[in-house]
Amino acid sequence: LEAKGIGKRTITSSVKFDLLEDVSLELAIMVDDKKQIRDHNILSLGSLEKILYEWGGVQVRYKGIRVYPYGDDDWLDINKERGLRKATPQDELFAFAQTLKGVDPRRSLLNMLSMKSYVGNVEIGKDAIGFEPKLNREGFVSSPAFDKLKEFVRFAIDWSTILRDYYIREENLKKALIAKERYEEIIGEKVEQSRVIESALAHLETEAKILSEILPPPKRKEFELVFESATDVIRKQHSANQTELTHLRLVASTSTLLLIFSHEVKSLLGDLE
Q: Which domain holds residue 92?
């Protein structure tokens, strides 16, 4: 994988895809979200939507000829699993997600995109074995090779999705840090991370009080009512987020302990046998 902000990343799977000789995959992630388009001069949201509609999905070419309906249908079960809210990767991808700071491996696929956002192309060359087109040319006959192909492509998609989620989180943390530093410059003092929201609200309330004093009485009452309601929502939402974060940390800690306990029990049973 090579992407802006992430750099070049590689992963070597312990699974052997020995049935995929002369098979290659190229994959890109394209999101129809205006905020995630880096340069609107190169590509507008309208143009991207058209591209994804026509070319979105992972297509398959067999000896240079496109095989339908792959790329037009959900042959990789991406949309199906999104609908089921499947969030946990399997085996070594779960282990990989555990190595990324701040990523909950049990939820690392929760932000899986639509199948159309994964724009890719599988090339099956002339030396590939085990791929037999159906008589009507609509896809391949079910085979171990095709099952392995699907597993291989999903491995690549899931891995890149985990990294993308990690990158988005890191970018949000950077933006939050920059905003905190700018705020500290304005107020002329350092603020602990845990107190940023409360400190910012306190300063807002001070400034709002000064502002309300110069407003005419009818406008002042309306302003104070709206401002009080808005700050109350922020405080309560922040408190709820902190409670949820504490709960998730507790669950993560408990899950880890249960995993260790299960491993120890299995080892003990093995010794007894």
A: 2-176
